Input
Amino acid sequence: MKWKVKMPLLGPTTEEGKILEWLMEVGDHVEAGDVLAIIESDKASLEVESPGTGVLLDRYADTGEMVRVGQFIALVGRPS
Output
């Protein structure tokens, strides 16, 4: 199974967030609930957790990049 990780809703009027730091590298084993990245809105910082156990297969945003809410930022699953 694969899980697409989206930029979460950071507030009722927030449309995008910034990737402050990736805590996992592509290829790292992750458990459900592990923190993948720290993101920031204009008002707060937030941890983005892995929705499942597997491997971080891809990251779709770089550190420092602004990402729209709902856009995919990572993919977790079993390697093919």
